[in-house]
Specification:
five-stranded parallel beta sheet; two-stranded antiparallel sheet; 8 helices; transferase; tRNA (guanine(37)-N1)-methyltransferase activity; S-adenosyl-L-methionine; tRNA processing; methyltransferase
C-alpha cells in the first residue's frame, strides 16, 4: 500500500516515519509513503498558498491552484488513488472505515491548514472527507498520521490490529459553511455571488443555510442536536 501525503509541512512526518511499527513496515516494503510539498506547486510569485476569504471573516484560506496541481501530480504517480481530505465536514473515522480503506492500493491524503481549503477543490477533487473526531486541530498532518497508522495495521504482514476510538463533542452542533478565496473563477467554477455582494446580513444568512445543509447531509446526529437547541 502506498500513501501520497500532500502537505505544507512535510518535516512534521520525520519522526513519525522513522519510529516503531511503521518504520519496520516501510523497511520491509509493506507500506510506502511519499511526502509532497504543496508549496512546490504554487504559481504565485511570492510562493503563497493562501489568501483572504471572500465574504470576509477571520483567518486565511488555502488557494485552489497549488492544491489542484499537487493532487493531479499525485494522481499521475499513483494508481488513480482515492483522494481523502481531513475535515470536520467528514464522517468520523471508525474501525469499519479503516478496514475498508486498507483494501485500497494507493491513497492520496490532503492536509489542510488555516480556515480550510477553497471549497471548489472539495467539489472537484475530493473523493472522501474524514474527521478523526469531534474536535479541532491546527492542520491535517496529525489526522494524516492517525489515518496512516490505523490503516497500515490492516496491511498484510504489518503487526497489530487493535482498535482504540475516543470521541468528543463539538462546541457547536453545526459544521462550518464552505470557504472560497481568489481567484473568483477557477476552472469554470465561480464563487457564490452572495459572498461578493458586500451585504453582511445576506452573507450571514447564506452561511447559516449552508452550514445547516452540510450538517444535515454529513452529520445528521449533530443536526438533530442543532434543531433541539432552536
Amino acid at each position: 500500500m502506498k500513501f501520497f501525503v500532500l502537505t505544507l509541512f512535510p518535516e512534521m512526518f520525520d519522526s513519525f516515519l522513522n519510529t516503531s511499527i511503521l518504520k519496520k513496515s516501510i523497511d520491509k516494503g509493506l507500506v510506502e509513503i511519499e511526502l509532497i510539498n504543496i508549496r512546490d506547486f504554487t504559481q504565485d510569485k511570492h510562493n503563497k498558498t493562501d489568501d483572504y476569504p471572500f465574504g470576509g471573516g477571520p483567518g486565511m484560506v488555502m488557494t485552489p491552484q497549488p492544491l489542484a496541481s499537487s493532487i493531479e501530480y499525485a494522481k499521475e504517480r499513483s494508481n488513480n488513488g482515492k483522494v481523502i481530505y481531513f475535515s470536520p465536514h467528514g464522517a468520523v473515522l471508525r474501525q469499519s472505515m479503516v478496514s475498508n480503506l486498507a483494501k485500497e492500493q494507493d491513497i492520496i491524503l490532503l492536509c489542510g491548514h488555516y480556515e480550510g481549503i477553497d471549497y471548489r477543490i472539495v467539489e472537484k477533487y475530493i473523493d472522501l472527507q474524514i474527521s478523526i473526531g469531534d474536535y479541532i486541530v491546527t492542520g491535517g498532518e496529525l489526522p494524516a498520521m492517525v489515518f496512516i497508522d490505523s490503516v497500515s495495521r490492516y496491511v498484510e504482514g504489518v503487526l497489530g490490529n487493535e482498535e482504540s476510538a475516543v470521541e468528543e463533542s463539538f462546541t457547536k452542533p453545526l459544521l462550518e459553511h464552505p470557504q472560497y478565496t481568489r481567484p473568483r473563477v477557477f476552472e469554470d467554477m465561480e464563487v457564490p455571488e452572495v459572498l461578493l455582494s458586500g451585504n453582511h446580513e445576506k452573507i450571514k444568512q447564506w452561511r447559516l443555510s449552508k452550514s445547516e445543509e452540510i450538517t444535515q447531509n454529513n452529520r445528521p446526529d449533530l443536526y438533530e442536536l442543532f434543531k433541539k437547541d432552536q
